[in-house]
């Protein structure tokens, strides 16, 4: 009586073990933590630890530029491989990891499509809106929000030593308020109002903090995304009728989208308008709007706050940047009240600081795993060719990429903008500079998957960093 279930049980375990051994053997060429070859738990723990950047870098340092971090998952810090996987004509595709980026219960978005044709089509329809080509107010909108941010800083946080008033400002919060207001303004014409409220009016940031670990779970166990279809689980997710949190932001976005349709449709030349012109449906727009908010805010805020942190805590760097700003203002090379993007691009030390901030703390450290195509792929690890079978996912290690000592020098762990301003013009220096300049843009991804909001992000960084400095420089002058 027990024989049949017993035999079935043993057969099941045997099949499971054999499958595990087969999967382990498929990537046996690659080094990596031993348990990561057998179970995804190592990777999950790594995600949930909050230090995936340093953990991946330890793995690449110890086991080579491409190493195993889960049974069918490799991680790479090799810039050549990243370019190869993302290139326009590459046969690598997005891996199932990307399904973890679905932000909206009903609608997908450009960042989570794993269907190549759908992704390419959506990219061609949204790229003009994101890049600003069909968004004539882009620069002015950012300028308005810069002034709001400066106003907030002066109103609430300016120290008045003579009155014995000293204030602390949470740079992390103010930079997030700024980028959230910018993205809502440039995307659909209305800022959320974080800067005016000097607060998180919808509880959005707090809610995102709770939800982000879920991206880790879904990214590692992508099969789990199916449970989101179960009605009672779906009902417990944030929804556009919520009064607070992510759901409230969804509601806000939904309202802005619906305003563009019907008899009294609002017409404004912004990202939303460009998307509508290029044929996105109302549901697609809602999914895309959620992505604009999430992809466009925290990434830029992270770059802004880390660069401002390093500049303001390194007196020689601050002094040199202030010098550049003062000189440019005196020479009339910086428009007032807000610098033009084209003017900021002419300030070499500012550009070096921005590059260095993006490099030393790349804002996106999620896995962005691409998938090995049919026929498998040969991957060069330290001069040895290794084989990855079709279906293997390869994540990127942006932190490891940007702290590569062979590319950025032995002091790659240090924030030193001067590395971007070569003092001598030897062939060797030019070669190194070229390698650095080719590697850095990878922080925005590459090729057919590269960031669509790069223009917006760079404009925010160019303006916000210089205006905060110009303000500080003006204050120093006044104090003199
Ligand atoms: C410093 C700030 C930013 C950084 C470092 C950054 C970086 C990235 C990276 C690494 C990717 C993914 C590439 C891949 O999947 O392989 C990406 C995708 C994307 N980013 Fe950004 N981003 C930033 C700001 C922005 C902003 C401000 C916006 C919106 C205005 C934006 C919109 C997007 C979109 C729509 C995608 C998806 C592109 C696609 O699926 O083809 N990003 N970004």
Automatic annotation (TrEMBL):
GO terms for molecular function: heme binding; iron ion binding; monooxygenase activity; oxidoreductase activity, acting on paired donors, with incorporation or reduction of molecular oxygen. It holds the Pfam family p450. InterPro entries: Cyt_P450, Cyt_P450_sf, Cytochrome_P450_monoxygenase. SUPFAM superfamilies: Cytochrome P450. This is Pisatin demethylase.
């Amino acid at each position: 009586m027990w024989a049949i279930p017993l035999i079935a049980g043993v057969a099941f375990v045997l099949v499971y073990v054999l499958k595990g051994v087969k999967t382990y053997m498929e990537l046996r060429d690659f080094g990596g933590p031993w348990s990561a070859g057998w179970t995804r738990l190592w990777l999950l723990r790594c995600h949930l630890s909050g230090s995936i950047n340093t953990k991946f870098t330890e793995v690449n340092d110890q086991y080579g530029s491409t190493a195993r971090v889960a049974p069918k998952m490799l991680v790479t810090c090799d810039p050549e491989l990243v370019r190869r996987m993302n290139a326009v004509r590459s046969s690598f595709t997005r891996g199932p990891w990307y399904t973890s980026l679905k932000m909206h219960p009903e609608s997908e978005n450009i960042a989570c499509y794993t269907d190549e044709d759908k992704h390419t089509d959506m990219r061609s329809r949204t790229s003009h809106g994101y890049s600003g080509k069909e968004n004539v107010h882009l620069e002015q909108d950012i300028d308005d929000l810069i002034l709001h941010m400066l106003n907030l800083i002066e109103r609430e946080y300016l120290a008045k030593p003579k009155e014995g008033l000293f204030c602390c400002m949470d740079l992390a919060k103010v930079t997030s308020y700024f980028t959230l207001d910018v993205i809502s303004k440039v995307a659909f014409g209305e800022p959320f109002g974080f800067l005016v409220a000097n607060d998180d009016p919808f509880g959005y940031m707090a809610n995102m903090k709770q939800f982000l670990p879920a991206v880790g779970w879904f990214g590692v166990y992508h099969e789990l995304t199916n449970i989101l279809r179960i009605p009672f689980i779906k009902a417990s997710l944030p929804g556009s009728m919520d009064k607070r949190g992510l759901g409230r932001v969804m509601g806000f976005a939904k309202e802005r989208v619906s305003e563009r349709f019907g008899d009294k449709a609002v017409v404004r030349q912004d990202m939303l308008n460009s998307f509508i012109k290029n044929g996105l449906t109302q549901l697609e727009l809602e999914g895309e709007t959620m992505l604009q908010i999430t992809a466009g805010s925290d990434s830029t805020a992270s770059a802004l706050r880390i660069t401002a942190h390093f500049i303001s805590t390194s007196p020689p760097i601050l002094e040199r940047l202030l010098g550049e700003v003062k000189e440019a203002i005196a020479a009339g090379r910086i428009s007032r009240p807000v610098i033009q993007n084209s003017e900021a691009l002419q300030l070499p030390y500012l550009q070096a600081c921005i590059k260095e901030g993006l490099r030393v703390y790349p804002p996106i450290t999620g896995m962005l795993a691409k998938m090995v195509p049919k026929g498998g792929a040969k991957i060069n690890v330290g001069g040895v060719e290794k084989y990855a079978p079709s279906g293997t996912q390869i994540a990127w290690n942006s932190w490891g990429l940007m702290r590569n000592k062979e590319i950025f020098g032995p002091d790659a762990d240090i924030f030193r903008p001067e590395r971007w301003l070569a003092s001598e013009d030897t062939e060797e220096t030019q070669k190194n500079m070229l390698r650095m300049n080719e590697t850095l843009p990878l922080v925005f991804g590459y090729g057919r998957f590269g960031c669509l909001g790069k223009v917006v992000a760079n404009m925010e960084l160019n303006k916000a960093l210089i205006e905060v400095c110009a303000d500080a420089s003006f204050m120093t002058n006044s104090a003199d």
